[in-house]
Q: What sequence folds into this?
């Protein structure tokens, strides 16, 4: 009895890994046989980034049960710290090692930001938490835009005003140049690295969920008061989920930075619009459903591209599809109708509910 | 002298935020949802005025009236089609995401009709600037009209909610939908009315905003919408006086921050103040502190 | 020796003294009832005992140790577990996992061991599963171990809540209206279960209850609360025959 349940969860996770693996193989075949348009090829790394962002946000929204609208802020922190490191160390150490350390730095700094922001913020509830995370995301983006860091023989110079106030020596160079961001980040990102990072994120998140800590996190989501009186340390586990989620977003950010030659913090890539888009992936894929997040991140990223033929109408269609899918998936009437349909046609198959987490 | 001028500009911008925030907060109070598309209704109102006044050359008063009617109808239609079916959904996130979808929809419809180019909005205010203290202090006509409009709307709305039957029904529905229904209040009608009023206010806010900051694109409404949302939370979301105070304070902080600290950092300052307020008082300045019953 | 000793416990909400000068002494192994009309302050006493509210005055001692003003989580760790009047389960977790959350503080492995599935993870999880199944068997819930908690029928949800509370290895178990919403048959079964829990786990139990049959059937001692005050206290039979108590319950 017991054994069977364990294999059930394990099987579920296994299917998720296999889906990612198959996707990787299919893409590799398409690439090798020259059947992939350059447009699609350019989308491969962003797809990996979005998938990582979606599954990491699902840890906060679906597993911890707190609404965060600042996920792009953590991505921004990761992107800039990782790119900064790579710019400084370019040529000093082998590329592979440098990129690996950049990823670790991005994860660590985003994770630290997660804890620093989480400590004050996670006391708030629901919509208040949402607006404060949104505010933090915007502040991070804003601060990065006025940050100037340069390097010369005397070491690093910081300024919040402009690059001249850095007072660099003659041989010095500006690394982070305010709104112009960081230029010349080495192009280390590739689809294969992206897939490896997705596997790693999945491994961490899925194993966390199915462990002692994961149960504690989900117990807070389901009933905070009961969790507390059952001896669960609410603050500790909220922070754990929040900072792991931020860390993975940070890694996605490092990947993002190493996929572009110029990294700037714009409303488009690190603003609240991005955070909201990630949230859309999570909700549409199923709150708490990690595999769903992957699938919806891929579909929703590809959808506008597939609709490219419709040029001006594509974002309009995207919006309509989004609204229609939400109504179809969540409206109580539609849910009731689907249940009836299921009963009618699939009544011989039992629908006993198993664990939520897939 | 410049401080006073900044302060007045701040109050003016704050009045616009307050008017938008009123729409946000009323809708939140009654439907318990964050209407992310609210900011885009502002944009629709502005484009309506722009079309009528700048393109068709008709009088501004007519433009404003038509904009209010269009936004009111639009607000009610959005509620009916996109939000009402999700009112009893199992997760509150469902309607939030749908609102985001509606926001994308409005932006992209506007993009199709009007294109992505920035339109320069002709001010609808025909009052000449007020010169005080030997011309050292100049207050533009737009500022004067905005502040007056803000005061009028706040007074009217407060009277409406506290004195009229429909307003009392709104309070009742926001307190407890089920009980209100049992008391014979038309809950669906009241919610529709709330969206109608909120959207009408958004139209007015759009006109005022674009008169003061005359550039109009399909994305014009998004940032003021977010700021107004911040203002509503700042003041205590769900509270009408809270939205007014929150809006005006936010406007003042933003303008003073721009003037004295850094224009690039103005938004960061606004958001930082919000965070500080919420950390000290987790439900906003005038928000009710409700403890979960054990 | 008394397991729980409460002296002069008092709390006010906005001028209203919800609990006023509350005293109680519960001996180890005792089955103690806290009764009283609606709004008498019974659940407030539970909330004070478990640290949900901080008392204005008074002292709470568990095994002579002062636990007044401790946080809920620390009170649970020192040995008081509770159930809730309106059932509070982890509804999207399985029945088994609900109990395993209760075992959380007694079975340890690190986050790293959990994520990287080191041998200790498997060892500890196995031990947790076995212990949780043992507890579920006591409440005849072992057959539903992999159901979601929200899919259990009402009576079983109440039992699961007790199982979860017991999993935290308490010295004192607080049950808030365990028989609420049950029919006489189920109540009878519940009485047997409560007695069984006391005997098997050597547990001390304080329960709030309205069902007089249950109270007189299993409680050895009673405290009657009325408007936040203690109306009567002592052996069950003598308390229930107290004219004051009869008046409070049946009216004039």
A:
């Amino acid at each position: 009895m017991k054994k069977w349940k364990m294999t059930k969860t394990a099987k579920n996770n296994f299917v998720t890994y296999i889906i990612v693996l198959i996707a990787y193989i299919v893409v590799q075949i398409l690439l090798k046989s020259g059947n992939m348009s350059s447009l699609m090829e350019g989308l491969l790394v962003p797809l990996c980034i979005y998938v990582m962002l979606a599954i990491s946000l699902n840890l906060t929204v679906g597993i911890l049960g707190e609404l965060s609208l600042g996920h792009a802020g953590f991505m921004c922190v990761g992107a800039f710290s990782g790119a900064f490191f790579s710019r400084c160390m370019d040529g000093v150490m082998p590329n592979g090692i440098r990129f690996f350390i950049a990823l670790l730095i991005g994860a660590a700094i985003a994770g630290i930001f997660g804890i620093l922001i989480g400590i004050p913020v996670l006391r708030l509830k629901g919509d208040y938490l949402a607006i404060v995370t949104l505010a933090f995301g915007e502040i991070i983006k804003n601060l990065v835009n006025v940050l100037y860091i340069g390097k010369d023989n005397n070491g690093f110079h910081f300024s919040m005003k402009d690059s001249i106030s850095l007072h660099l020596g003659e041989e010095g160079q500006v690394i982070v140049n305010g709104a112009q961001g960081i230029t010349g980040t080495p192009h280390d990102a590739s689809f294969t690295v992206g897939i490896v990072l997705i596997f790693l994120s999945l491994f961490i998140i899925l194993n966390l969920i199915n462990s002692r800590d994961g149960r504690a996190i989900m117990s807070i989501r389901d009933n905070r008061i009961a969790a507390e009186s059952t001896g669960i340390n609410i603050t500790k586990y909220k922070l754990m989920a929040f900072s792991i989620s931020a860390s993975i977003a940070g890694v996605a950010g490092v990947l993002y930075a190493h996929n572009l030659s110029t990294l700037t913090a714009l409303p488009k890539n690190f603003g609240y619009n991005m955070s909201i888009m990630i949230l859309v992936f999570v909700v549409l894929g199923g709150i708490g459903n990690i595999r769903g997040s992957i699938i919806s991140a891929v579909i929703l990223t590809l959808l506008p591209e597939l609709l490219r033929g419709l040029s001006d109408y594509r974002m309009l269609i995207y919006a309509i599809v989004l609204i229609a899918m939400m109504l179809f998936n969540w409206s109580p009437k539609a849910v009731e109708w689907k249940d009836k349909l299921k009963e009618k046609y699939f009544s011989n198959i039992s629908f006993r509910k198993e664990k939520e987490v897939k | 002298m410049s401080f006073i001028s900044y302060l007045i500009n701040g109050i003016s911008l704050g009045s616009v935020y307050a008017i938008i925030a009123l729409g946000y907060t009323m809708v939140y109070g009654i439907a318990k949802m964050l209407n992310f598309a609210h900011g885009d209704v502002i944009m629709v109102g502005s484009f309506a005025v722009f079309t009528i006044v700048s393109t068709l050359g008709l009088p501004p008063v007519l433009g404003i009236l038509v904009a209010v009617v269009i936004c009111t109808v639009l607000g009610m239609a959005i509620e009916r089609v996109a939000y009402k079916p999700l009112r009893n959904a199992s997760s509150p996130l469902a309607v939030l995401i749908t609102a985001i979808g509606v926001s994308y929809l409005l932006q992209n419809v506007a993009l199709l009709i009007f294109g992505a180019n920035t339109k320069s909005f002709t001010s609808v205010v025909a009052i000449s600037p007020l010169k005080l203290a030997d011309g050292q202090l100049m207050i533009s006509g737009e500022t004067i009209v905005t502040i007056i409009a803000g005061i009028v709307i706040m007074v009217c709305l407060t009277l409406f909610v506290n004195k009229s039957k429909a307003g009392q029904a709104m309070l009742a529905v926001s307190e407890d939908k089920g009980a209100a229904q049992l008391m014979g209040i038309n809950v669906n009608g009241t919610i529709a009315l709330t969206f109608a009023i909120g959207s009408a206010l958004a139209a007015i806010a759009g006109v005022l905003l674009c008169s003061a900051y005359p550039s109009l694109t399909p994305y014009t409404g998004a940032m003021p919408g977010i700021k107004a949302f911040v203002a509503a939370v700042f003041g205590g979301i769900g509270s009408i006086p809270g939205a007014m105070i929150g809006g005006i304070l936010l406007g003042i902080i933003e303008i003073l921050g721009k003037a004295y600290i850094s224009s690039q950092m103005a938004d960061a300052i606004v958001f930082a103040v919000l965070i500080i307020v919420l950390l000290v008082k987790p439900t906003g300045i005038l928000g009710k502190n409700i403890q979960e019953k054990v | 020796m008394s397991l729980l000793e409460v002296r002069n416990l008092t709390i006010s909400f906005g001028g209203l003294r919800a609990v006023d000068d509350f005293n109680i002494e519960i001996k180890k192994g005792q089955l103690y009832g806290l009764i009283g009309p609606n709004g008498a302050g019974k659940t407030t006493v539970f909330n004070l005992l478990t640290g949900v509210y901080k008392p204005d005055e008074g002292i709470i001692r568990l095994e002579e140790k002062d636990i007044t003003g401790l946080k809920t989580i620390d009170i649970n760790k020192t040995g008081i577990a509770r159930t809730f009047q309106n059932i509070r389960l982890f509804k999207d977790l399985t029945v088994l996992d609900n109990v395993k959350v209760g075992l959380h503080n007694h079975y340890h492995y690190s986050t790293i061991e959990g994520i990287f599935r080191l041998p200790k993870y498997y060892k500890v999880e196995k031990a947790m599963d076995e212990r949780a199944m043992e507890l579920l068997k006591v409440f005849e819930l072992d057959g539903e171990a992999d159901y979601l908690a929200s899919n259990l029928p009402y009576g079983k949800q109440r039992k699961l809540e007790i199982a979860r509370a017991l999993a935290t290895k308490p010295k004192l178990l607080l049950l808030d209206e365990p028989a609420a919403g049950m029919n006489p048959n189920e109540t009878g079964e519940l009485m047997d279960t409560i007695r069984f829990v006391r005997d098997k786990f050597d547990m001390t139990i304080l329960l709030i209850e309205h069902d007089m049959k249950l109270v007189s059937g299993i409680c050895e001692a009673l405290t009657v609360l009325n408007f936040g005050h203690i109306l009567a206290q002592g052996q069950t039979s003598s308390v229930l025959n107290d004219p004051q108590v009869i008046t409070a319950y049946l009216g004039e």
Observations:
- Chain B has one domain: 2-228.
